[in-house]
Structures are given as structure tokens and as C-alpha cells.
Amino acid sequence: MTAILASDKLKFKEILNFPPVAIDRGEVIFITGRSGSGKSTLLKMFNGIYTPDEGAVYYNGIDISELDTLALRKEVLLVAQGVFLFSGTIQDNFAAFYDYRELPPPQAEMIERFLQLCCMNFPLAARCNTMSGGERQRIYLAICLSFCPQVLMLDEPTSALDAATANRLLQNLRDFAKDAAVTLLIISHDPSLAEKYGDRVIALEGGA
């Protein structure tokens, strides 16, 4: 079976060397490592935001340098720590991101389903510009999750959450991913979460 994502001999900025990676469809993978080991950089190379100085990334066996980058990023979707939301309501933001993809706005029931998956039991009329950073990140996560990408990459999705909410969110994400055959890549500094919810852990050492 061809890995949905794979990389070989990646180097970035003559500082970071990455081990070979092969990720099967539907896996839940946690990526760990100290600060500066290249965790966020690796995710950004996986969907073409960054270009490696050496080596290659493969999506379904095809070198991503041969693929349309915008189309790739819709299928290999990154939720970074710093997210962009419009100043309107939750429903406005869902509609805006769907419009960007030339899709009809989702129904309220669908929005509420994905908000609940992301532990955001807020009314659809709640305005995003009044929310905390962690709440805004989970709104953006709910939008991204609703697109059901092939691969969803999350950069520290639980960093602003208490332990109970972090566990509930990761359990929801794992259950959804397994049901929908979505591959999850999650950066985390918490080894207990990685052990509990990951199928495998990729540990990065970093450095040359």
C-alpha cells in the first residue's frame, strides 16, 4: 500500500535534517521533539508552504513539486497556531471559507456538529473577534475539519486548553478521523497525550 504521505532525506536551511517518514492513510501520528527540532517546519514542507533544500515529499506516491500547490493544500490541510478568522460571527466565518472554495454555505446543523467535535458549544451568532486565541483556533479547526481533508495537520492544538478539554478534543478528533479515514498529524509537547491518542509517534531530534 502506498503511503499517503512520505518524505526522503529532507533538509531545510542547512540546519534541519529529517528522518525518512512514511504515513499510511487513516493513521493518527503525533510529532514530538524539543523546540527548534523542526516540527512545524516539517508540516509546512508536507503541504508545500516551505520547499526543502534537499530531498522530496510524496503525496500518494507523487512528488508534491509536480502537483498544484493550492489543490494540495486543500487535501493536506494545516491548522497552525496562529489562525486567521474574519471579524464576523462563527456562521459568517464558515460561510466565508466555504465561499473561498466556491462551495455553498453549510447548514447550521452541520456547523454545530463540527463545533461540538472541537469542544466549542458556542451559538453560531457569537462573534469571533471577542474570543480568546484558543477559542479562535478551535473555530478554525472546526471549519477545517468540516472540509474532511485527506490529511489534517495540527500544530499544538491543545496548548491553550486545560487537561480535560484537551483529552476530550483529541478523543473526538481521533474518533472522527477513524470514521472518516482522515489522516491526522499532530504536533504535541505532551508525551502522555501522544501515547494515549496516537497510533505512532515521530520523534524529531533536530539539528544538522
List keywords for this structure.
208 residues; alpha/beta; Rossmann fold; five-stranded antiparallel sheet; five-stranded parallel sheet; 7 helices; 10 strands; 36% helix
Q: What does it look like?
A:
By secondary structure, the chain is an alpha/beta fold. The protein has a single domain, classed as P-loop containing nucleotide triphosphate hydrolases (Rossmann fold), CATH 3.40.50. The protein is 36% helix and 22% strand. It contains 7 helices and 10 strands. The radius of gyration is 17 Å and the shape is globular.
User: In the CATH hierarchy, what is the architecture at level 2?
Assistant: 3-Layer(aba) Sandwich
Ends apart, CA distance between termini: 32 Å
The counted number of beta strands is: 10
The CATH homology group name: P-loop containing nucleotide triphosphate hydrolases
Catalogue the unreliable spans.
none
Task: Please outline the helices and strands.
Blueprint: E1 5-12, E2 16-17, E3 21-23, E4 28-33, H1 39-46, E5 54-59, E6 62-63, H2 69-75, E7 76-79, H3 90-100, H4 108-117, H5 133-146, E8 151-155, H6 163-180, E9 183-187, H7 191-197, E10 200-204
Parallel strand pairs: 4-9, 4-10, 7-8, 8-9
Antiparallel strand pairs: 1-2, 1-3, 1-5, 5-6
Helix pairs in contact: 4-5
In short:
This protein has 208 residues and is an alpha/beta fold. The protein is 36% helix and 22% strand. The chain has helices spanning 39-46, 69-75, 90-100, 108-117, 133-146, 163-180, 191-197, and strands at 5-12, 16-17, 21-23, 28-33, 54-59, 62-63, 76-79, 151-155, 183-187, 200-204.
